[in-house]
Amino acid sequence: MNEPFDDDDGWPDPQVLAAWRVPSLPDDFADRVLAHASVAHARVLPQGERRRSSAPVVAAIAAALAVAAVLVLVFATRIERVVEHQPEPGSAVAAAAPAPATTQLVLDVAPRDATVLVDGATVAGPAPFVVAELAPGPHAIDVRRAGFVPVVKIVEVGRDGLRLDLDLDVADVVLGVIVDPAGAEVRVVAAGREIARGIGSQPFAVHREGSDDVVLEVSAPGFEPRRVPVRFSGAPQESIVITLVPSSGVHPRTPSTVTPAQPRPDLRRDLKDPFRGARSDDDTASSGELKDPFQKTPAPAAKRTSSLRIGVLPGRGPARVSVDGRVVGTTPIANHRVTPGVHRIRWDWDDGHSFAQTIDIPDGEVRMVKGG
Amino acid sequence: MRGFARETGVRLSPSFDADVLAAAQRGEPWACRAFVRAHQDAVFALAWRILGRAGRGGQAEDVAQEAFARALRSLPRFDPTGVAKLSTWVLTIATRTVIDELRRRPTRHEPLDAVAGELVDPARPDVDAEQRRLARAIADAVDELGPEVRAAFVLRAYHDLSYPEIAAALGIDIGTVKSRLFRARQALQARLNGGGW
After folding, report:
1. Where are the domains positioned within chain A?
2. Interchain contact, A152 vs B5, CB within 8 Å
3. d(CA A192, CA B19)
4. pLDDT tens for residues B137-188?
C-alpha cells in the first residue's frame, strides 16, 4: 500500500464531488425533531424492571402522601378561618401586585417577506411585524429568509415597547480581496481556522450562515504580514484592499534601492481587481490608485492624516455614503479625512441598491473610491 | 490542503448568539428549535451520504432525528469556551449515531434505479443526465466502502473537518484517518476513472 497522503490534492475535482447532492428536508423537520426528542427523553427515564422491583416502596410512599394531603387540607381550612376574622392586611398586598403590563415589539425587517418568530411563535407578515401584548422582558427573535444570514438573538423589550430595524445580510458574498504586492498570499480565517487560501488579488465566494469572525491574513516575502478583520456590510459584494509595507526598518522610496529585504520581482505585478469584469474600468479605487508601498511608512498615529475622495461609478446616481458605520454625506465627497488604517465604506442608493468596500489606507495618502 | 468546501465556496459554520445557546442548554423550546434549524441541513446531509442506499426511504431523516435527540440531551454539557466548535460537536454526535445505525441493522439495499432518482436534487431540472451518472458513480463508490471509511470521507470532503476533528469524531488516531481517506480516494478515483471522468 502506498504511503497515506498528507493532503487532499489528490481528491477528485470539487465540482465532480458537488454533483452528489442531497434532497431538501421538509419544512417541519425541526418540529418533528423536538417531538421525537421529547419522546426519546421520556424513554430514558427509569422504567421496566426498576419500576416493578420498587412497586412496594412506591405504594408505601403513595399512601403516606395521601395521609399528608388530608392533614394539609384540614390545617389549611383552619388557617383560612383564622385569616377571615383578622383586620384587612391582605388588601395592601393585593394592591401591591399590579396586573401584569403588556408592551409591544415591532420588527421592521428587510427583506419584508422574511419569516419572523418571537419566542418560537410565527408572527404574521410582511414587515413591519408587530407583536402586541407582549410581557416586558427578554424575548427571543428568529428572523430568516432563504439566501440571507439568519438572525437569532434575545432582545430586551421594555415597558415602553421596542422597535427594531433588522436588515438581513446576504448569505452569498463575493469577497474581492485586492492585495499589494500582487503576489501576496491571502488566507481567509473564520473563527480562528483557515477556510480558504490563495495567491494574489482574487475573489472568494463566501457563504455566510452565521456571524463568524472572518479575518484576512496577508503575507509576502520582504513585507510585514497583516491581519485585517472583514466587516460585512450585508451587501452581496464586498471589496477589501490590503497594502503590505516592507518589513525592514528603513523603507527606501524606490524598490531599486532596496537590497536584502526587497520582495521578489514577481510579487510586483499589476494589481487585478476581482470585480473588474463586472464593473467599469473607471473604478480606480480598487486598482490604479494604489500607491507603491515603498513610498510611505505608515505611522501609528491616530490623527486623521489620510483622506478619502468618494464617488460613484458612471451611470450611478448620487449615493448616501457611510464610513465605518457613520453617515458622512452624499456623493461626491471631495475630502473626507480618516485615520490611517482599515475603513469600511458603504454606498446606499434610493432604489435599495448598496455597495460596500473596505480599504486599507496608509498614512498621508489620498484615495479615490467609487461605488457602484 | 484543499477540500471540497474550500474550492466551491467558503462555508462559514452556523454560529449562535451566546444567549441563544445558553437558552438551548437550559432546554427552552424556542432555542432548541433554533439549534435544530441551524444544524439540520448539515446533519441530514451527513446522514444521507454516510448511510448511502441504507438511508433511502426516510431512513436518513429518522437517523438525523435521533442524532438531534442525542445532541439535545447532551447539549447542557457542551462547553462553548472549549476547543470544539458547536457545529463540529453536532457533526460528531451525528456521525456516531449514523455508524451505530449502520452497525445495528443490516443494510437494506434499495433498487438501483430508485436510488439514482434521488442522487440529484429533484428541484433542479437543469441537472442533466451526465450529472446524474456522475452522482451515481460517486454514491456507488462511497457505498462500497465500510461505514468508518465512508464517514471519514464524508466528513472531510463535504463537511471540511480537519484530520484531528475526524479522528475525534470517529475515536481513532490521525494516522488511521489518513489511511481511511487514502482508501476512499483510491476507490473514488478508480470508480470515476472507470466511468471516464
Report:
1. 28-83, 98-167, 172-371
2. no
3. 21
4. 888 888 888 888 999 999 998 888 889 999 988 989 999 999 999 988 888 8
> Per residue in B42-87, pLDDT tens?
999 999 999 887 767 788 999 999 999 999 999 998 888 887 788 8
A139 HSE (CA, 13 A, CB side):
28
Measured between alpha carbons, how far is B51 from B56 in angstroms, rounded to an integer? 8
Burial code of A250-289, b = ≥16 C-beta within 10 A, e = fewer? ebeeeeeebeeebbeeebbeebebbbbeebeeebbbbbeb
Half-sphere exposure of residue B90: CA atoms within 13 angstroms, side-chain side? 28
Question: Using the beta-carbon criterion (under 8 Å), do B8 and A15 form an inter-chain contact?
Answer: yes
CB atoms under 10 Å from CB of A23, counted, come to: 17
Q: What are the grid coordinates assigned to B20, written together?
A: 441563544
Q: What is the pTM of this model?
A: 0.48
| Full residue range of the structural domain in which residue B124 is found | 4-194
| pLDDT, position A193 | 73
Q: What is the pLDDT of residue A318?
A: 85
Alpha carbon distance A224, A294 (integer Å)? 12
Q: Tell me how crowded residue A212 is: count the other CB atoms within 10 A of its CB.
A: 23
Residue B72, min C-alpha distance to chain A (Å): 7
Q: Does the predicted interface ipTM exceed a cut of 0.95?
A: no
Across the A:B interface, residue pairs with CB atoms under 8 Å apart total 202
Q: What residues of chain B, 5 to 24, have a C-beta less than 8 Å from chain A?
A: 5-17, 19-20, 23
| Displacement of CA B53 from its chain's centroid (Å) | 14
**Among residues of chain B, what percentage have pLDDT more than 90?**
26
Which residues 34-93 of B have a C-beta within 8 angstroms of A?
34, 36-38, 40-41, 44-45, 48-49, 61, 64-66, 68-69, 72-73, 85
CATH entry 3.40.50.300 includes domain A98-167: no
Each residue of A33-72: pLDDT tens digit? 888 776 544 443 333 333 333 444 444 444 555 555 544 4
State the cell numbers at B102: 449502520
pLDDT surpasses 90 at A136: no
